[in-house]
Design brief:
3 helices
Length: 138
């Protein structure tokens, strides 16, 4: 009887249809599983990319802040040096003016003391200025 059933064309067609449906369902299930696995890999890669971009942006922002701080320090240092330079230049200018006045005054005093017979710069007051300029004190 089972042999007779297997030889029946409709039974074989039904079994073939069931086998085809089973294979189609297996194929579909395998495709869905593979798709889900691949989608999980893609999602992880996108998440890793986003994390790398976030870390890169944080690193860039931190280095930019460091560069700004260094620029601010350099600017402050340059300003301080500029102020010190201006003070020194003012002091040099003041000393230069004072020296010119002192030289003129010393030559006048030496000339008056010598009664007009002193050679400019070689009197007592002129020699005192030369000694001071050479670092020998007053």
């Amino acid at each position: 009887m089972t042999l007779k059933l297997l030889t029946n064309k409709w039974v074989l067609s039904g079994l073939a249809a069931i086998l085809v449906l089973f294979l189609a369902a297996s194929y579909q299930q395998g495709y869905k599983t593979a798709y889900q696995k691949q989608q999980a890999v893609i999602d992880k890669m996108e998440k890793d990319k986003a994390e790398a971009l976030r870390l890169s942006a944080q690193n860039y922002a931190r280095k930019l802040e460091q560069a700004r701080a260094e620029a601010k320090q350099s600017e402050a240092k340059a300003h301080a040096v500029g102020v010190a330079l201006a003070q020194k230049q003012a002091e040099v200018s003041r000393l230069k003016t004072e020296n010119k006045k002192e030289i003129s005054h010393a030559l006048t005093q030496d000339s008056q003391k010598a009664g007009g017979g002193c050679i400019d710069g070689f009197g007592h007051h002129g020699l005192r200025l030369y000694n001071r300029a050479l670092g020998y004190g007053n």
